[in-house]
């Protein structure tokens, strides 16, 4: 069994990755502020990574300062992870990223530019790395990047997406991090396309939330046209939207 450090262990997909690795008998070391590790300053990082066989970066290390450079802070956290892993002799690194962020329409989106820089850092690190790029997760149905909850209604950006469940992403990441022959890049998507306002409305319905969903134009028009649908060659994994919604209704 392996000792695996998980950055972002308390996040949406990080919690699921951690659970799968632990269930498989691996020793999981959470890398998060809650565990005493700061990915911006490096405090506690060497201690967390010492003795690790692999590192998974599923973190969203956003700056607390609203005036900070998002690209430098988010990508810098990954570079710090990589540098520390290399210094300590950790040979395996898996990064969770996003499909299609290379598209020029995202050149002015700081978060997507930061994800590009993370991917470049993994490729240049010299470690045995895999970038797992995914379409938006089903859980994006409530993400504040495109969804705003008001007292009387919920406004949702009109994105056309092909969502994949965070559970499915966690399954793949947990398999790849211990695989001897993992590729340097894997792309994942769910089996169905849907407009985000519809997905949000369906999720609210199964949760018993009667607030109406109001569709608004996406901040980047190409998001309404499907710029983040599954790229050619992506691995299609279930569950379907309906199957996922049944789990949310429990």
Strand ordering within the main sheet: 2-1-3-4-5-9-12
CATH level 1 name: Alpha Beta
Q: Tell me the structural class.
A: alpha/beta
Low-confidence stretches: none
Rg over C-alpha atoms, rounded to the nearest angstrom: 18 Å
Corresponding CATH superfamily: NAD(P)-binding Rossmann-like Domain
Count of alpha/pi helices: 7
Q: Describe the global form.
A: globular
Oligomer: single chain
Distance between the termini: 33 Å
Beta strand count: 12
Helix content: 25-40%
- Approximate strand percentage: 15-25%
The assigned CATH architecture is 3-Layer(aba) Sandwich
List the secondary-structure elements in sequence, H or E: EHEHEHEHEEEEHEEHEEH
Largest sheet: 7 strands, parallel
Mean pLDDT across every amino acid position: 96
CATH names the topology as Rossmann fold
């Amino acid at each position: 069994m392996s000792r695996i450090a998980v950055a972002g262990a308390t996040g949406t997909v990080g919690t699921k990755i951690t659970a799968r690795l632990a269930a498989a008998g691996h020793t999981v070391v959470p890398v998060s502020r809650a565990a005493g590790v700061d990915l911006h300053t490096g405090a506690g990082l060497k201690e967390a990574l010492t003795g690790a066989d692999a590192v998974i970066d599923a973190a969203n290390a956003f700056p607390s300062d609203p005036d900070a450079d998002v690209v430098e802070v988010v990508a810098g956290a990954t570079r710090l992870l990589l540098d520390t892993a290399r210094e300590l002799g950790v040979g395996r690194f898996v990064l969770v990223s996003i499909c299609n962020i290379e598209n020029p329409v995202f050149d002015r989106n700081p978060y997507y530019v930061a994800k590009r820089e993370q991917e470049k850092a993994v490729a240049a690190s010299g470690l045995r790395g895999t970038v797992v790029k995914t379409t938006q997760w089903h859980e994006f149905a409530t993400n504040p990047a495109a969804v705003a909850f008001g007292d009387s209604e919920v406004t949702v950006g009109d994105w056309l997406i092909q969502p994949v469940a965070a559970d499915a992403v966690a399954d793949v990441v947990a398999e790849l991090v211990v695989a001897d022959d993992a590729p340097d890049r894997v792309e994942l998507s769910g089996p169905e396309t849907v407009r985000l306002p519809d997905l949000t409305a369906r999720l609210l319905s199964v949760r018993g939330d009667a607030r109406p969903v109001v569709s608004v134009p996406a901040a980047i028009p190409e998001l309404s046209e499907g710029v983040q649908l599954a790229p050619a060659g992506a691995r299609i994994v279930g569950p379907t939207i309906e199957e996922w919604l049944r789990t949310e209704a429990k």
